Amino acid sequence: MLTESEKALREWMLALPEDKAQLQALRDETEQQLSTHATDPKRRDEYQSKLDILDSELRR
């Protein structure tokens, strides 16, 4: 059974754009959010997971 956080991450992944420029912009925005808004460890993990996924998509 997926947690709410895992479900949200899955939905986010399915909505990722295919265009590399849009992916890069989303990655930059997520990195900024990680550095400015993620103060609790769970939130940091969520942002870091998104960054890892975006990095993987950009390398394709």
UniProtKB/TrEMBL annotation:
Region (Disordered): 27-60
Listed Basic and acidic residues bias regions: 39-60
Protein name: Uncharacterized protein
